[in-house]
Amino acid sequence: MTPAELAKTVDHTLLKPEATRADVEATIAEAAELGTYSVCLSPNMLPVTVPEGLKAAVVCGFPSGKHASEIKAAEARLSAAQGADEVDMVIDVGAAIEGRYADVEADIRAVREAAPGVVLKVIIESAALNDEQIVAVCEASRSAGADFVKTSTGFHPAGGASVHAVELMARTVGGELGVKASGGIRSWDDATAMIAAGATRLGLSSTRAVLAGEKASGTY
Fold it and tell me: Which residues form the active site (predicted)?
């Protein structure tokens, strides 16, 4: 895989709470320069102008997932109306841990129905779940009409993406959904290992360093 090919799998990400409008503009410019698939931003940064060929993604219910489904749905609806191409929503991780998978599915479905025209990625916070829970949440995401399952917010103390979680997620969705690996991917080796494990999209904030084969710092 070449750097240009890897770049086409990347959501170039800026989700720091202290991010400014100038930071967003710089991130969009960098994404265009590097040739990434999209930029992933906080929803209150919309609307944004992106060059042709670059998608705009935003998060929803971020980072805790502890929002009423109606709030997540309203957030996704507004984001879609303001030009988002993709929405990355966070599930209620506690509901998954408790085995309330029907509630997880209903939460995802509410967002899906609120923003039918966008690509929906479901952040499951895989490092906080066991294998059984990961499988069940991936199945709920598929049943609810999601387009991707995604490992992590990058903000959870349990950690980010792992090769094991990505392999399990990819095996569960069986190619019917995409798999996005995010959180803690800070080197070329990290990134290509996730692709080899079955990831079809990567969430990176240190994209330039990763593509250059350098080791980056940070969490996302």
Answer: 88, 150, 180
